[in-house]
């Protein structure tokens, strides 16, 4: 408590002086790109969700990276193989929960909804009275909050008041009752973005603001725009913010940088999914479902690949691996992967040739380099197979 | 009886006040002298707080001079800092003085009284006047944050005096609020039905 008091006092006296002196007190700039329609139906669509989840990927090291929490004890247990298998499945479920995307909904407009006007109550007090229903277990959107104004009107509270009352009675961990300085001052936000603290800013944004608030839309759009310029997409990969980011780019037709990054990192199926998502959002008449289905058959879903990665730790090193497996680990690709790459490359090239791509030269170059590397790998793959005498398979 | 007593008290108070004023006055003179001396010297050299006091240098225990944060931030990157602390944190080499086997539970209230170091073993922050606790001085603040729990380390570990410890906690909180120090934000659970209506995503 005393700490809080000190912080507040310092913020009031010295902090504000600093801000005036150092930080321009201009509020955060608004972003240039906005959702012009309600993005929610397209975002919650089952196929979109599947595409976004696949693009996000599931890297267990990143999802379960060490966090600074109060209690980070680890537990050691003896388990049978069946129990371990159960535990693996649980881990994947947990990881998927941690990767759940924040909702994307349109901005909610504040409307005045008076209930009753009682002029007889005028000047009954010098302040407003706010009444809150604090029944346990109600969802926040259904909680009734009404305000009695000093002029005697009884009305439903504004969104701002509702949020404040919810925070007062049912506090959300990490949310501040004031606007954090990071979001309030342009210079501090800009500094955070320049230092590529994208995940931190977005995490804080989800905690501080509700998805339907103007600030949420503004700030997240700003972060995504900055990210599109700095091209550090890998920082957000395998976090819960990657899906909304990809959706944002697809919606505003600026996927080319992300696409380039995916091709360069050899995530070709992700690139196909991104293009398909753009086609879907803008209703461009290109047939993509067939390619996607083919790729889906050839490629494991993110949770399947993560599960096989987990099972990989179980295998004893002296255990005999099939020669096929060995070749796979040496090259990093299987026959299926090569087949999938062919299909995806065809689809991507079609996209690059069409009028929808904006950075054709760059993308073409990336595709060309990737093709050469792939060809080399394929030759090596076939050579190895021949040497081991397994080409009959 | 009472008015007389009050009169005597007032007289005494005014005397002490005036004498303190005089002391302050001399201190300020010293300070101005020190400033002119420091201006001629190289700043990085002057930044080393644990140098031997020169004959012309002011009292090394004097802490009335306010060091700006920018100087402190430069000091943390300087060769003088490296020479003094090496790769260690500023508090690693510090040991508390106490009688008996066990140190008192709490550290001392403050190391600096009336603008002067009032103890022989000031705490890691107070002993080096160029370590300024401020929210912009992230390099210094991060030395006091535990990599495991993300909390500010206890004074029983760092040996900071109570006053410095409070200032440290305030500065860390401000730095977090300003986004200068990152921390792990608690995971926000969403009730998706609340945002999407009844259909389940």
How is this fold's topology laid out?
The complex is a heterodimer of chains A (393) and B (201).
Chain A: H1 2-21, H2 40-44, H3 46-56, H4 60-63, H5 81-98, E1 114-117, E2 129-132, E3 145-148, E4 153-156, H6 159-169, H7 181-184, H8 186-194, H9 198-208, H10 214-230, H11 242-251, H12 256-264, H13 268-282, H14 289-298, H15 302-312, H16 323-331, H17 335-353, H18 360-388
Chain B: H1 2-40, H2 43-46, H3 69-77, H4 79-85, E1 112-113, E2 116-117, H5 124-127, H6 138-141, H7 155-158, H8 162-178, H9 192-196
Antiparallel strand pairs in B: 1-2
Characterize this entry briefly.
The complex is a heterodimer of chains A (393) and B (201). Chain A is mainly α.
Tell me the β content of chain B: under 5%
Question: Strand arrangement, largest sheet of chain A?
Answer: 1-4-3-2
Order of helices and strands of chain B: HHHHEEHHHHH
Gross CATH architecture of the domain at 62-196 in chain B: Irregular
- Alpha carbon gap, first and last residue of chain A: 72 Å
Helix/strand class of chain B: mainly alpha
Subcellular location (chain B): Mitochondrion
Main location (chain B): mitochondrion
Keywords (chain B): Mitochondrion, Phosphoprotein, Ribonucleoprotein, Ribosomal protein, Transit peptide
Family (chain B): Belongs to the bacterial ribosomal protein bS18 family. Mitochondrion-specific ribosomal protein mS40 subfamily.
């Amino acid at each position: 408590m005393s700490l809080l008091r000190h912080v507040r006092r310092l913020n009031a006296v010295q902090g504000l002086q600093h801000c005036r002196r150092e930080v321009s007190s201009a509020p955060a700039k608004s972003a240039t790109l906005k959702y012009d329609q309600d993005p929610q139906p397209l975002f919650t669509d089952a196929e979109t969700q599947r595409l976004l989840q696949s693009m996000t990927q599931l890297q267990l090291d990143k999802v379960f990276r060490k966090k600074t929490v109060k209690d980070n004890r680890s537990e050691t247990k003896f388990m049978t193989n069946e129990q371990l298998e159960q535990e693996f499945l649980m881990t994947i479920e947990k990881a998927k929960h941690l990767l759940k995307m924040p909702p994307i909904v349109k901005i909610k407009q504040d409307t005045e909804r008076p209930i009753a006007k009682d002029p007889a109550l005028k000047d009954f007090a010098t302040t407003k009275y706010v009444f809150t229903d604090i029944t346990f277990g109600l969802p926040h959107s259904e909680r009734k909050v009404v305000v009695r104004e000093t002029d005697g009107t009884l009305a439903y509270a504004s969104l701002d008041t509702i949020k404040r009352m919810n925070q007062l009675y049912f506090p959300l961990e990490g949310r501040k009752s004031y606007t954090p300085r990071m979001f309030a001052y342009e210079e501090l936000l800009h500094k955070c973005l320049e230092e590529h603290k994208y995940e931190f800013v977005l995490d804080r944004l989800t905690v501080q603001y509700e998805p339907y608030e103007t600030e949420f839309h503004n700030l997240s759009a700003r972060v995504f725009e900055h990210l599109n310029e700095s091209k550090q997409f890998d920082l957000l990969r395998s976090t819960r913010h990657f899906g909304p980011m990809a959706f944002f780019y697809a919606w505003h037709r600026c996927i080319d940088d992300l696409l380039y990054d995916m091709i360069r990192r050899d995530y070709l199926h992700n690139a196909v999914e991104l293009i398909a998502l753009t086609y879907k959002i803008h209703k461009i008449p290109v047939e993509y479902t067939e390619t996607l289905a083919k790729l889906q058959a050839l490629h494991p879903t993110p949770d399947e690949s993560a599960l096989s990665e987990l099972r990989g730790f179980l295998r004893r090193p002296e255990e005999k691996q099939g020669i096929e497996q060995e070749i796979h680990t040496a090259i990093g690709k299987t026959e299926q992967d090569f087949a999938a790459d062919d299909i995806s490359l065809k689809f991507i090239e079609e996209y690059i040739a069409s009028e929808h791509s904006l950075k054709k030269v760059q993308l073409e170059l990336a595709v060309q380099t990737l093709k050469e590397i792939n060809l080399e790998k394929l030759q090596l793959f076939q050579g190895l197979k021949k040497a081991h005498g397994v080409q009959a398979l | 009886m009472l008015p007389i007593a009050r009169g005597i008290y007032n007289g005494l108070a005014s005397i002490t006040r005036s004498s303190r004023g005089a002391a302050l006055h001399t201190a300020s003179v010293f300070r101005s002298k020190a400033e002119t001396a420091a201006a001629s010297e190289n700043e990085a050299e002057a930044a080393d707080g644990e140098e031997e006091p020169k004959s012309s240098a002011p009292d090394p225990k004097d802490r009335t001079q306010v060091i700006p944060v920018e100087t402190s931030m430069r000091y943390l990157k300087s060769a003088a800092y490296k020479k003094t602390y090496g790769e260690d944190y500023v508090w690693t080499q510090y040991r508390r003085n106490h009688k008996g086997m066990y140190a008192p539970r709490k550290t001392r209230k403050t190391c600096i009284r009336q603008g002067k170091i009032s103890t022989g073993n000031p705490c890691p922050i107070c002993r080096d006047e160029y370590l300024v606790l401020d929210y912009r001085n992230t390099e210094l603040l991060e030395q006091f944050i535990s990599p495991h729990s993300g909390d500010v380390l206890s004074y029983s570990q760092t040996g900071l005096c109570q006053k410095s410890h409070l200032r440290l906690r305030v500065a860390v909180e401000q730095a977090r609020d300003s986004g200068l120090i990152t921390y792990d934000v608690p995971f926000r659970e969403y009730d998706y039905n609340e945002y999407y209506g009844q259909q389940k995503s």
